[in-house]
Design a protein that fits this description.
This protein has nine helices and seven strands. β1, α1 (22-33) and β2 form a beta-alpha-beta unit. α1 (22-33) crosses α9 (234-245) and α4 (120-145) packs parallel to α6 (166-186). 44% of the residues lie in helices and 14% in strands. By secondary structure, the protein is an alpha/beta fold. The two termini are 32 Å apart. A seven-stranded parallel beta sheet has the order 3-2-1-4-5-6-7, with helices on both faces. It holds the Pfam family adh_short. Belongs to the short-chain dehydrogenases/reductases (SDR) family. This is Glucose 1-dehydrogenase. InterPro entries: NAD(P)-bd_dom_sf, Sc_DH/Rdtase_CS, SDR, SDR_fam.
Length: 267
């Protein structure tokens, strides 16, 4: 660990799923700033992944775009092999991919009993099986190296419940339980596993468009539920995830950290 940077990553290679935009992009860039030996940027849209990888290379840090759908275990394994060849074995995994995956959207519309069962798989695939797949592909690197970090971005919907998002919430809750369990399996190998639980996060967008959204009555009503009167920023997520990837968090594992401006306190 650097004497001057508490969050120094010690040259470890990191992979960030869903890293092509918003919080994922911010996480990838922040890891690069704190002495990652390389950053692999995943997104199901190849152009987004490559654009962020190029930003990281411009910072003088090796980077690789690894576009694949996290629902595909074989694709995750192939990405691991490609990363080993170009950057070295990844010993930091950030499971950030979420929402409803390729072609899906996360807009609360229907009660659970009104939704078609075919929709369930979109939520479960990305938010639960995607975490399984990437963890299965990359954790062996950490066990072999006897060091590593797994950080999974989850949602307060899975921590406290959210109407009309029952399957999504259950997938996020399942990911939290999975992380608590693998934390107990991995501790002997000096590998930690933790979650960051988000509430409403503003996507990256032009200032004019953001100002229009923030001025709406619906947004103002939502914001009144937050102790800190703003929604989350991508940089908020990147800061906490980077801490949990660093040596500064070496005695923290199996935990879920709410990052929500006081929307739903942890008990």
């Amino acid at each position: 660990m650097s004497d001057t940077d508490l969050l120094d990553l010690g040259g470890q290679v990191a992979v960030v799923t869903g890293g092509g935009q918003n919080a994922g992009r911010a996480i990838a860039l922040e890891l690069a700033r704190h002495n990652a030996g390389g950053v692999a940027v995943n997104d199901f849209v190849a152009e987004r992944a490559e654009a962020v990888a190029e930003e990281i290379r411009a910072m003088g840090v090796p980077a690789l775009a690894v576009p694949f759908d996290v629902c595909d275990l074989e694709a995750a394994k192939a990405a691991d092999a490609a990363i080993k060849e170009k950057l070295g074995a990844a010993t930091i995994l950030v499971n950030n991919a979420g929402m409803a995956g390729p072609g899906g959207s996360l807009r609360p519309k229907l009660n659970f009993w009104e939704e078609e069962p075919e929709a369930w798989q979109r939520y479960l695939g990305t938010n639960l099986y995607g975490v399984y797949n990437c963890s299965y592909a990359f954790i062996p690197n950490m066990v072999e190296a006897k060091k590593g970090r797994v950080v999974t971005v989850v949602s307060d919907s899975g921590r406290i419940g959210e109407p009309k998002l029952a399957v999504y919430a259950s997938a996020k809750a399942g990911a939290q339980g999975f992380m608590r369990s693998i934390a107990k399996e991995l501790g002997r190998y000096n590998v930690t596993a933790n979650c960051v639980s988000l509430s409403a996060l503003m996507p990256d967008m032009p200032e004019e468009q953001l100002a229009e959204i923030m001025a709406s009555d619906q947004t103002k009503a939502m914001m009144s539920r937050y102790t800190i009167r703003r929604f989350g920023k991508s940089t908020d997520v990147a800061a906490l995830v980077t801490f949990l990837c660093s040596g500064a968090s070496e005695w923290i594992t199996g935990q879920t950290y709410p990052l929500n401006g006081g929307y739903a306190p942890s008990m």
